[in-house]
Amino acid sequence: MVALEEIAAVITPLYIDIMGQVKKRLDSLTKPIGSLGRLEDIVMQLAGISGEVFPKVDKKNVIIMCADNGVVEEGVSSCPKSVTAEVTRNFTRGITGINIFARHANSDITIVDIGVDAEIECQQVLNRKIRWGTGNIAKGPAMSKSEAIKAIETGIDIVSALKKKGVNLLGTGEMGIGNTTTASAIVATYADCPVDKVVGKGAGLTKEAYHNKIAIVKKAIEVNQPDKKDPIDVLSKVGGLDIAGLAGCFIGAAYNRIPILIDGFISGSAALIACKIHPLVKEYIIPSHGSAEPGTEVLMSLLEMEPMLNLKMRLGEGTGAALAFHIIDAAVAAYNQMGTFQDANIEQYEPLE
Length: 353
Prior knowledge:
By secondary structure, the chain is an alpha/beta fold. It has 2 domains: 61 residues, Nicotinate-nucleotide-dimethylbenzimidazole phosphoribosyltransferase (CobT), small domain (5,6-Dimethylbenzimidazole Phosphoribosyltransferase, Chain: A, domain 1, Orthogonal Bundle), CATH 1.10.1610; 269 residues, Nicotinate-nucleotide-dimethylbenzimidazole phosphoribosyltransferase (CobT), large domain (Rossmann fold, 3-Layer(aba) Sandwich), CATH 3.40.50.10210. It contains 14 helices and 6 strands. A 6-stranded parallel beta sheet has the order 3-2-1-4-5-6, with helices on both faces. Helix 2 packs antiparallel against helix 3 and helix 7 packs across helix 8.
């Protein structure tokens, strides 16, 4: 396993010269200049990441980090903690939302037990357990700094292994009861807004339970005093192992020059941590959908990103990322297969002033 410090030191910007070549080809295609909007931006970003004028996205994988959160004991979720382990096992049975969406997008999934508070005896689940669930952030830190770093390095290691298998497009997913609370605590730490602007009902809460969740997020920040100048400190104090592992996936994607998609609010909080650790990581990230979680708007503002889809989804698991794979496939297909003005015997459009 490569150390986080070693990897962060070698992350480099996108290949601007390659992006210029792609822009020139896009402008030569038989369409008004820029008329495919963000699809053109996506193709240029893919090329800038890969260094290829004709980038490939034919081997996809959604990494699902699974972990339990001690804060569940505060009544922040409508689901019992045991659901984390059950859904993790169900990923291997092919019956969950991400299973269906990934199959439909011709994508594989990688299931990781990075901190489930149960024994997961499934060959299809990678056992990378750092600890058996985190501490209750309403009472103290979620984990130690060394555990947070180990979880980040685990994510990096998993991405590096997938790179060796030829994976060229990644999605991020998670499973962990209580993780909208930890994600909210991370975003609230960095956002200049009231805590209730970033806290949602998660898997579904009563009005009373929702107000309790807001109070718990406030308490977690007050008790732990996370230092937003130190993203590892924020992660270790009010985050979760699933978020830490995904933060490592974003960093690992930048290190391995693989485009990686944010799924929703929780994986977005991991992306925020990753970008705080190394700002260049942002150049390798593509947002997928605007989660129905209310903190998504604040989070996207912090990341200075805009989701490509808005379907009011809040399932998690990587489902939004898998849906966005179709958009990326379409963008690449249009770029690769559309004829040029010369092919179409049409005079090329000139850009407007």
